[in-house]
Specification:
The complex is a heterodimer.
Chain A: H1 7-23, H2 26-34, H3 43-51, H4 70-83, H5 89-100, H6 104-115, E1 120-123, E2 137-141, E3 144-155, E4 162-168, E5 179-184, E6 191-197, E7 203-214, E8 219-220, H7 227-262, E9 264-265, E10 268-269, H8 274-302, H9 308-334, H10 345-357, H11 362-372
Helix pairs in contact in A: 1-4, 4-7, 5-6, 5-7, 7-8, 7-9, 7-10, 8-9, 9-10, 9-11
Chain B: H1 3-18, H2 45-56, H3 75-87, H4 97-109, H5 112-123, E1 129-132, E2 148-151, E3 155-166, E4 173-179, E5 189-195, E6 201-206, E7 215-226, E8 230-231, H6 237-252, H7 264-273, H8 284-312, H9 320-343, H10 359-367, H11 377-388
Helix pairs in contact in B: 1-3, 4-5, 4-6, 6-9, 7-9, 8-9, 9-10, 9-11
Classes of the chains: A alpha+beta, B alpha+beta.
């Protein structure tokens, strides 16, 4: 398979580009932020995503979806990133769908995701840094389980209709065996949900599970065998976050290059200065390399290739590097105006930082690659 | 079995039978690679055998037309051949500026006679070529070159000096940019070929920081060049040169990629420094540097694959080779800094067995030229800024 978008994927990209730029440009985020919107995203917009068919991209045809792959999901995510559109697309239509695929929960939750009724949130991080470990305890209690522990960085967790929670039914924190995924309702008793606004104006929840009781049928997949689902969720989430970051980085770069062509100092456009040209050209190179790495990861995931695991880490780490550079150069090259709230470039900086942290940052994934390579 | 599967299994069997074991070892230095040429005594018996066997099938240039000595393979077949060679770590049978640079330019701009004459000899490794581009005052400003070619009816009379002519002292022929009109800059350049044994050609090696002298100063004193050796139109050599430079950049752009098989950089670091009780490299900061480098190197591997796929499909931006050249060469320099850091004092030994006669330190020093030759990194960044990002000229 050649490493570029095929005709159908290009058509989808054009559709997504127009739709997202029209329905949710950066001004949409600004309006939500200025209104201190308690949800942090628009349910109406989520429904429109569903009407476009986007929410069913990764849902199998047999379940009513489009049965497409990570390349196609990434095409939509890149446009979400470019426009900084607040949306539960990554957590719900990408990561959660991958976790639920092929389980009894698919029939229950996919219809809502397809119509844009359901928003899912991922309670997978036990602390402020994403780790490959799961510490939260799930003890057997009667017919079901009792969950105790805390989670954070649960994006949209305060309004989600479905929480996917990673907990430990056996084994030690760093082991794969003994992990179980649960589908938990947000309004469960003894679950304390505290929304916190993040730097990019999105909202993520802190969660205290103080002996939350769930039935046996809350288990997603197999008891003690949740690692496989969790890994699918993470691979999809990481690849998707990389694609969204490519959008954020490209959006920031386009804005900056546009500014270099307009802004005059010393009587000439600043884009004619070689110092700035070289930095812009270097940035372009880093972003192109990150884009290629992301497409490679998407294609390998879609092919079910075992090399996908390391390709996903390369993509997440590389987009973290390139997009961080893009937003930093963006502000610097805009000069003082780049520091103002009125100008949009700062929004890109904030979103990039959140996405870089989500599902493991550059260091986490570089470390994972090193471990796999035996050093 | 599909045709391609058959091709793969036949190719695998043929390589297995015909690639000598010594040609499945990594190339230790530029000197260790096979460059062909009129003086075949410079080749080892195995180098000669491997080159000739591959040339017989047209596989030194697998995707060139058969009538010019190529294999006539499709892109898919060429890819399979490369994969099968990589699988057994087979060496390139022939390193050649004729293949990577002159060949593509001749295929595009040469006449049928010129192609028959030169391409077939390139494919068989009979003629070793060098490139006469840079001059003492025309490096990055290549179009400022002054070497003149005066029209003398049936021939040109060439006078001037070139510099950084790679292997000019070992090459049989040169492809050369000369000035045929002094009144315009880029519009007065022509592209000619001539025999380095011609009267009036002399070369002088330049000793480099690596202790090697792969580059030469090259002098032309009333060299007679037959008119039929002009490639393309008179005064239109700049087009040929630019086309060729694009190919040179494409070739150089592969530099940031690790070779086939394991990862010598990581293996070297583990061998020298060792692992701690957690199984991690016992130097945590070097480990972090290596890991971060590997992120970029692996991502660039994907970029390289994407670039080649887009080239084949005619989708690549014409200035994209500049990005590949810039990124690949900078990455290669970084790789060799890490190879030296991983090797410790062993890697500093200039002549010892521990450093394979100084292969590491010499290769490290050699890489510093990567971002200068074939257009400096700064020139590539200028090209990206202007032609891809469309930023204004000063």
């Amino acid at each position: 398979m050649p490493l570029y978008l095929n005709d159908e994927q290009t058509m989808l990209r054009d559709t997504a580009k127009d739709f997202v730029a029209d329905a949710a440009p950066v001004s949409h985020l600004r309006a939500l932020r200025d209104a201190n919107d308690p949800a942090g995203f628009s349910r109406d917009l989520w429904k429109q995503f569903a009407e476009m068919g986007f929410t069913g991209i990764l849902i199998p045809e047999g379940d009513g979806g489009l049965g497409l792959g990570h390349v196609e999901a990434g095409v939509v995510l890149e446009e979400i990133g470019r426009n900084l559109s607040p949306s539960p697309f990554l957590t719900t239509a990408v990561a959660a769908v991958e976790a639920l695929k092929g389980t009894a929960h698919a029939a229950q939750h996919f219809p809502g995701i397809l119509t844009g009724e359901t928003v899912a949130a991922l309670a997978i991080d036990d602390g402020p840094k994403h780790r490959a470990t799961v510490a939260m305890q799930a003890e057997r209690a009667g017919n079901g389980f009792r969950l105790t522990g805390r989670k954070q960085f649960v994006t949209h967790g305060h309004v989600a209709d479905l929480l996917i929670v990673a907990a430990r039914t056996a084994g030690a924190a760093e082991e794969d065996d003994g992990i179980t995924l649960f589908a938990v309702p947000r309004d469960a008793a003894k679950l304390d949900v505290t929304p916190e606004r993040l730097a990019d104006s999105s909202i993520a929840a802190r969660m205290e599970f103080d002996g939350v009781e769930v039935d046996a049928d809350a288990v997603i997949g197999e008891v003690d065998g949740g690692a496989a689902n969790l890994k699918r969720l993470l691979a999809a989430g990481r690849t998707g976050a990389a694609a969204e970051m490519i959008g954020v980085g490209s959006g920031a770069m386009d804005m900056t290059v546009g500014y270099l062509k307009e802004r005059k100092q010393f009587g000439v456009t600043i884009g004619s200065f070689q110092a700035l040209q070289h930095r812009a050209a270097h940035l372009y190179s880093e972003l192109e390399v990150a884009r290629a790495a992301t497409l490679k990861a998407q294609q390998l995931l879609d092919a079910g290739d075992e090399r996908a695991v390391s390709a996903v880490s390369v993509a997440k780490a590389m987009t973290g590097l390139a997009t961080t550079l893009a937003v930093q150069e963006g502000i610097q090259m805009h000069g003082g105006i780049g520091m103002t709230d009125e100008y949009d470039i700062g929004f890109y900086m904030k979103r990039a930082r959140v996405l870089a942290e989500m599902f493991g940052d550059t260091n986490f994934h570089a470390d994972a690659l090193a471990k796999t390579a035996g050093y | 079995m599909t045709d391609l599967e058959t091709f793969r299994s036949e190719t695998r069997a043929w390589l297995e039978e015909n690639c000598p074991p010594s040609m499945r070892e990594p190339v230790r230095s530029e000197k260790d690679a096979c460059w062909g040429g009129r003086d075949q005594s410079m080749l080892t018996p195995d180098q000669k055998l491997w080159m000739n066997r591959m040339a017989e099938r047209g596989w030194t240039v697998p995707d060139w037309p058969k009538e010019y000595g190529g294999g006539g393979l499709s892109p898919a077949e060429t890819k399979i051949l490369r994969e099968e060679m990589a699988r057994i770590r087979a060496r390139n049978p022939l390193n050649s500026f004729g293949i990577s640079m002159l060949g593509p330019a001749l295929l595009k701009y040469g006449t049928h006679e010129q192609k028959l004459e030169h391409l077939t000899k390139i494919a068989r490794g009979e003629i070793r070529w060098c490139q006469g581009y840079s001059e003492p005052n025309a490096g990055s400003d290549l179009a400022g070159l002054q070497t003149s070619a005066e029209d003398k009816g049936d021939h040109f009379l060439v006078n001037g000096q070139k510099v950084w002519t790679s292997y000019a002292d070992k090459a049989d022929w040169i492809f050369c940019l000369v000035r045929t009109d002094k009144t315009t800059k880029q519009g007065g350049i022509s592209f000619v070929l001539f025999d380095m044994a011609s009267e009036g050609v002399s070369t002088k090696p330049i000793l480099l920081i690596s202790g090697y002298s792969p580059f030469c100063e090259t002098f032309f004193d009333n060299v007679k060049v037959p008119k039929e050796n002009l490639i393309g139109e008179l005064n239109k050599g700049w087009d040929v040169a630019k086309y060729l430079l694009g190919h040179e950049r494409e070739m150089i752009s592969g530099m940031g990629l690790a070779g086939p098989g394991g990862n010598p950089l990581i293996e070297g670091a583990i061998a020298t420094i060792g692992l701690d009780d957690q199984g991690r490299l016992a130097d945590p900061l070097l480990r972090a540097e290596l890991a971060m480098f590997e992120v970029r190197a692996k991502a660039f591997g994907a970029m390289s694959e994407k670039f080649i796929d887009e080239l084949k499909a005619g989708q690549a931006h014409p200035a994209q080779p500049s990005m590949m050249k810039y990124y690949g060469t900078e990455l290669n320099k970084a790789r060799y800094e890490l190879i030296m850091a991983s090797g410790g004092s062993d890697a500093l030994e200039w002549e010892s067995d521990a450093s394979s006669k100084g292969a590491k330190p010499r290769a490290w020093l050699r890489t510093k030229a990567n971002s200068i030759e074939g257009g400096t990194s700064e020139v590539q960044l200028n090209i990206i800024a202007k032609r891809i990002l469309d930023l204004p000229s000063a």
